UPF0056 membrane protein (Kriegella aquimaris), 180 residues
Amino acid sequence: MILFAVIDILGSIPIIIGLRNKVGHIQSEKASVVAAIIMVAFLFVGDEILNLIGIDVNSFAVAGAFIIFFLAIEMILGISLYHDDEPESASIVPIAFPLIAGAGTLTSLLSLRAEYDVENIIVAIMINTVFVYLVLKSSRRIEKVLGKSGVNIIRKIFGVILMAIAVKLFAANINELFNA
């Protein structure tokens, strides 16, 4: 449940629909599999990777908070900050990383590892990956059901929620940076 809340794929539906409209197609399978691989790999070697490049978990989380904050700005104001000259697909960037397997998710995995067995965390990752796949695969149907105004309303609401998550992630980790 913790991963479900952090990944927040339901809250990302407006972002997914917007990205699909920009690039034309999202490879749901590819995005889901890559996100799962990133999460499982980070579960096992995340601390070592961050230590190797001299980044602590708090710095990583603050950087992730900035990314989430800018995604929220795009959603709330209806502007585009991320420009790719010729996007072929939005499957890996920004869907698999940082939308699904972003800094909040990866930081949460490191925290969960201290409290739960690795096997349980892997099962949670797989269950969440299946749910993510189903949402990605049905994004076109979700858009039809909600309609353009429904998507815009949800985009604004979840933009504010996403911004609140970014602020919380930032606030929870910024003090650790200055106290270190």
In short: Residues 1-179 form one domain.
